[in-house]
């Protein structure tokens, strides 16, 4: 039994009113009996999961249940939500229709954070004339990292030498000016 699968099962049940064991078994590629064992494990762990019979039956989680103290501390929830908001702002995805699922997820997570999650905002455009260029470069590098693709650029060394380079980026590090 994978802890990842149990978390995913909880999130699915929180997102939907009720899901049949058959649908969950198909989703996870396991037997219905395995789903029953997972539900039993969740109940033993204190997750208020229950099953109903009939045409609209299936597994569900009590409507008032939230993943409040079970996974993240208040400080961790604040950090996660703030980080997601900052990345969405930087990439411009907070206004994008194609990322409405991400926006909804951030809104849902914001409800669980008891502290202010708007303490960080990244915006390069107002004072930096290169702001739009930075956002474009950031998005290109982000996509290259996620898709494991190479990028090409001209590198200017401290010795004022120019080299054309092709690299596969694996992380973006933002360092402030100063």
Task: Kindly describe this structure.
- There is one protein chain.
- The protein is mainly α and 178 residues long.
- The protein is built from 6 helices and 4 strands, in the order H-H-H-E-E-H-H-H-E-E.
- The protein has helices at residues 3-15, 21-28, 32-44, 74-91, 100-112, 131-147, and strands spanning 49-52, 58-61, 151-156, 162-167.
- The chain has a two-stranded antiparallel ribbon with strand order 1-2. A two-stranded antiparallel ribbon has the order 3-4.
- Strand 1 and strand 2 form a beta hairpin.
- Helix 2 packs across helix 3.
- The radius of gyration is 22 Å and the shape is elongated.
- The N and C termini lie far apart (50 Å).
- The model has no long low-confidence stretch (mean pLDDT 76).
């Amino acid at each position: 039994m994978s802890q990842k699968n149990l978390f995913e099962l909880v999130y699915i049940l929180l997102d939907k009113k009720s899901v049949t064991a058959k649908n969950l078994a198909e989703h996870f590629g396991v037997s219905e009996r395995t789903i029953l064992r997972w539900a039993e494990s969740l109940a033993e762990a204190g997750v208020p999961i229950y099953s109903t019979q009939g045409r609209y039956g299936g597994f569900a989680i009590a409507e008032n249940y939230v993943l409040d103290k079970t996974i993240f501390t208040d400080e961790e929830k604040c950090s996660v939500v703030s980080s997601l908001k900052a990345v969405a702002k930087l990439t411009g995805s907070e206004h994008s229709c194609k990322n409405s699922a991400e926006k909804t997820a951030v809104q849902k997570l914001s409800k669980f954070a008891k502290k202010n999650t708007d303490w960080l905002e990244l915006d390069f455009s107002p004072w930096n004339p290169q702001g739009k260029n930075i956002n474009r470069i950031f998005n290109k590098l982000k996509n290259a990292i996620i898709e494991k693709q190479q990028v090409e650029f001209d590198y200017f060394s401290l010795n004022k030498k120019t080299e054309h380079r092709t690299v596969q980026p694996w992380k973006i590090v933002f360092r402030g000016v100063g």
